[in-house]
Amino acid sequence: MPIKLKKPAPIVSDMLTVDQAATVLGVSRRYLDKDRYEARANGTPPKVPFSVLGHRTIRYSRTDLLAFLEAKRIA
């Protein structure tokens, strides 16, 4: 008698990759890479907040991206 497996629930993550974050913001990946580089080089916070989850795993919070867009809104 075969075992019936349930379909796993889809996981909707609030954490986005660099490419996904660039798409949400409507900017290039290079813009986000440059923002992180300049922040580190100058010792200042980045314009767009991000998280480092591993040696090279960068993630952006969807909530932070929307807050960034709202802060840049004119009128």
**Helix amount:** 40-55%
Low-confidence stretches: none
Structural class: alpha+beta
Mean pLDDT rating: 89
Distance between the termini: 65 Å
What are the secondary-structure elements, in order, as H or E?
EHHEEH
Count of helical stretches: 3
How is the largest sheet built, in terms of strand order?
1-3-2
What does the largest sheet look like?
Answer: 3 strands, antiparallel
Q: State Rg.
A: 17 Å
Count of beta strands: 3
What fraction of the residues are assigned to beta strands by DSSP? Answer: 5-15%
Pfam family, one: HTH_17
InterPro entries: HTH_17
Domain Helix-turn-helix: 15-72
Protein name: Helix-turn-helix domain-containing protein
